[in-house]
């Protein structure tokens, strides 16, 4: 029966060419959407590595003329006073690169005997505790670190996995960063500070004493109690204006920033999903139309097949089978094109997402086609041979 | 053996009821070549459809090859049609997208049979109707007579006991019609196949063993 189906559809190849093209196009679009969506879903599901809810980000402007020791004293006083505000749980200063701020500070070289490119964050001793970051190994910065021979650094899990994949622990390892040797004192699990969809990248946290810019830390992150975030903003603003004698204080909600940072992926994904949805509806309607027309044209053939011994199930299988043969042909050609992406590594996305995308697109199209073919085919199966054989 | 007892068939719409067959009794012994004649609308095709199990009688019983087929369900009827019956239609009903040999194979697709065996039987059937040289042609490359010979090959490929032919020469000129009748007569003689043929052509009917005439759904001779 399968040979018969292939033969019949091959002989009808001109009639079915549009359907074939429609399936091929739908597959390519769906494959793209699924691969992109699955890849980003995986990224999204990987933890950020820090808390964003009930968190406020703050930028202040410290007088440039102020002495560095006075700056340190001012920063300590600001932190102490903020902690006394109602609803505030913790606070920390940080350098210029803040989570979801859109900035990146990177450095790279082969001083360590291998090519190592990393991104940087300058962070205080309170940074990990304020953001509720979890350490997989070692510890965060502590008081007295500044007296160590090598300036300490904390790295993320991707740093460990990429640069020292065979090492069980990299704590106490000396790592050269910008021609200066540093000692790794801790490893945090994750740190995705650009968006939920960020690709894992080696990251290094440097303490304030390694701040080679000479600029004081002028950003803060404040953790509040649940439900107290909005209320904390006004007293926080007043406190900071008083402390810095400067009204140039900007406060933002870190959770809102996170959502905003996700938009460059979420919006195209939503648009692509809507387009795919319309495409699938179009295919479904097209199939209905094609099948109803074909069945009307082939009523005598249906009667003939039934007269020759075809059961209603065999007639249904015949029409569903015919559509599936064209569909599978379109999917095979589409798959041939699709597998070139992972095989030739044309995009910087791991191959498994393309293979999953191929599988998901094939499954979706086959399901839709089978469902759409089933209704007209069952209608065809109900045709009475005595009636249709005498229509011509 | 075909045995129809008190077979009636009526078609009902919202307002009227049309009686196509009225308490018809007919017995066709194995190996007989029977023709049915009558004016248009007298119930000839309805009778053939009921014998071919593609229509059900409103009343009465049908026994084919010793089996009370009136009580058969859908799949059993389909199997019976496939194994015991062969159909020939006035308008051939060939599938234009299939080659001649693939058209002939059609009834065998609904049997458990390998592709090679199917092909062998189809070529045998084409040989029997003298069309083996046209096996790979398509129906639109054939004349009317050749198309009907393909339809006959398709009807006999499954070695049925009964062939039901609905005006098999109706669309053909007298020469081609004569050729078709020769083939049907040979099938009846050589293979012992029972043939029931509906025809409007008195000359063709005279070539069969027996003639049954219908008028207004009743048997008149």
Write the layout of secondary structure elements.
The complex is a heterodimer of chains A (392) and B (221).
Chain A (H helix, E strand, L loop, with lengths): L1 H10 L5 H29 L9 E5 L8 H16 L4 E7 L11 E4 L6 E7 L4 H4 L4 E4 L13 E5 H7 L10 E4 L2 E9 L14 E4 L12 E6 L4 H16 L5 E4 H44 L1 H9 L4 H27 L1 H5 L6 H31 L3 H4 L4
Chain B lengths: L1 E11 L4 E12 L4 E5 L6 H8 L7 E6 L2 E2 L5 H11 E5 L10 H6 L9 H14 L15 H13 L5 E5 L7 H18 L2 E5 L3 H5 L3 E6 L2 E2 L2
Count of spatially separate domains of chain A: 2
CATH topology of the domain at 28-43 and 78-211 in chain B: Rossmann fold
Strand tally of chain A is 11
DSSP helical segment count of chain B: 7
| Overall mean pLDDT of chain B | 90
* Poorly predicted tracts of residues of chain A: none
Apparent shape of chain A: elongated
Distance between the amino and carboxyl termini of chain A: 27 Å
Rg from alpha-carbon coordinates of chain A: 31 Å
CATH hierarchy class name of the domain at 28-43 and 78-211 in chain B: Alpha Beta
Helix content of chain A: 40-55%
Q: For the largest beta sheet of chain B, what order do the strands appear in spatially? A: 6-7-8-3-9-10
**Radius of gyration of chain B (Å):** 17 Å
**Structural class by SSE content of chain B:** alpha/beta
Order of helices and strands of chain B: EEEHEEHEHHHEHEHEE
How big a fraction of the residues of chain B is strand?
Answer: 25-35%
Task: Explain what the structure shows.
- The complex is a heterodimer of chains A (392) and B (221).
- By secondary structure, chain A is of the alpha+beta class.
- Chain A folds into two domains: 2-45 and 260-388, no CATH class; 55-256, no CATH class.
- Helices cover 52% and strands 15% of the residues of chain A.
- In chain A, the strands form two sheets. In chain A, strands 3, 4, 5, 6, 7, 8 and 9 form a seven-stranded mixed sheet that branches. A four-stranded antiparallel sheet of chain A has the order 2-10-1-11.
- In chain A, β3 (106-109) and β4 form a beta hairpin.
- In chain A, α2 packs across α9 (312-338) and α7 (254-297) packs parallel to α11.
- With 221 residues, chain B is of the alpha/beta class.
- Chain B has helices at residues 44-51, 74-84, 100-105, 115-128, 144-156, 174-191, 202-206, and strands spanning 2-12, 17-28, 33-37, 59-64, 67-68, 85-89, 162-166, 194-198, 210-215, 218-219.
- In chain B, α4 (115-128) packs across α5 (144-156) and α5 runs parallel beside α6.
- Classes of the chains: A alpha+beta (392), B alpha/beta (221).
- At the A-B interface, α1 and α8 of A face α1 and α2 of B.
- Chain A: Its main location: membrane.
